[in-house]
Sequence to fold (583 residues):
Amino acid sequence: MLSLILKAQTPVNYTISFENAVHHEAEITAVFPNTTSDSLHIRMSRSSPGRYALHEFAKNVYGVTAVNKDGEALKIIRQNPYEWIIANPKGETTVTYTLFANRGDGTYSQVDETHAHLNMPATFMYAVEMLNNPAEVTFNTRKDLDWKVATQLKHKSGTTYYAPNYQYFFDSPTEISNHRTRSFEVNSNGKDYTIEFVLHDNASDDLFDQYFEKVKRIVLAEKKVFGELPDFDYGKYTFLACYIGNASGDGMEHRNSTILTGTEGLADGGMKNNIGTVSHEFFHSWNVERLRPEALEPFDFSKANMTGALWFAEGFTSYYTNLILCRAGIITPEEYAKSINGTFNYVWNSPAREYFNPIEMSYQAPFVDAATSVDPVNRENTFISYYSYGSVLGLALDLSLRQNGLNLDDYMKKLWQEQGKKEDPYSIDDLHFTLSLYAGKPFADDFFNKYIYKSEIPDYATLFESVGFNYTQDQEKAFTGFTANTHNIITRNIKKGTPAYEAGLDTGDKIIAINNKNLDNEHTAEKAIADYKVGDVVTIKYSRYGTERETKLTLTSDPTYAISLDEKARRKIEKHRNAWLHQ
Fold:
């Protein structure tokens, strides 16, 4: 994704058609130029830029054929699930195949009569030896459905588009539909850039205009963090938004565009519920796409890609997501304070910190980032999302810097100027060193040694007090440590160290009675516990594998933190808070 200019090579040419869109099929032809090898190795990608797990896109490819330049059929050899080997290709080789595609999100492709939503690794085969070749693709759009093409690919002519290499091509999602667009110009460093929003949604034009005004404010607020826009290739950045019932909720960053998908249209709650993804993904055009972890550059399409820096790449971006909404006036300071609660409690009440620090949590991405498995896992006790972990660490770093007359915005600017703008991939040592340059070595060492290389908890009581946020726990609210549904069945793994864990309860257990009072759909375990106090010992009767059992559980204080805006903060603190939230 870094290098766009390589020596001239013959392009690989693709044509994709959608006559059978009603059954989610696309017909694809790929013309591979002359090869110097005795065999041509054609693959489907096993991973996708911005995702870290394996996806095995080959599973949706069938009807594969190959012919030479004279139209003679070529033999295809299969030695693994994701590769087709063509022996003795003798010049130009044309491969055709059918793709089944029916998931509209940031990783997969979806073809139906509403749109052709294409993520390139999930759609197009590639030749192993031609990853540095340009790629050209012609989209045979459905004129009967008024389809138009929206993509970050360079327009060549008609419905044909161009990418300088596969790092760019596979990073270029494309939305083909009867969509609408809005755009505005933003000047950065004396150059005008077009920010375009493509919307596939049934909302009225008026709602689209209102939503686009929010998008504008986000773009300008994020530009202010870094002091400038990235130098978008071809002078344009495109939001590709599909807010339709047959899509799946997601967001995925790309070099000059982003995929935004959701089941809620703007008229159905999407005005509020989709805007956070806009904030998150546009921030990635700096942090991830150009300010990029070295382990992800170049991206390898043949395997899972792993980096220990996702707590920064994804987590710090997550910290800015709602902060930017607040600064842009899309949510209030009160709403921003409230938004911190869920993430904060998820991270700091997790026992997983005893197993992994933020770097090691990042290493888990190939197992959790849209990855699937059939065997149960113990994530409640062993994993904290690097999105969430990094978000609350970004908050702690920002407030800590502000106590010293500094701020996270300027640290991000420094990283941007030192490495992001130059597209020089960074290591974790680089992040540490740049913080040393910005805030001093003692400060940087303290932060990284305690919170990145280890898993200690920052002094949030002091940090929140400094910006006039309330930070409390209800010491009198009783806590069991298990979550049960309305049928009183424990639905999630029990967290280590909780009363339920110590009492030997487990997921799947059905709570029958508490202190000999039988439970049912009306008299639930949650309601029954509300009658007891911290320190009380209750007898739990439960069923496991068809056998009734009994255990004793000692209630403790609810560990949940409550974070809110302090309306009575002193004037000096309020001024400090307003400087942070740009109020």
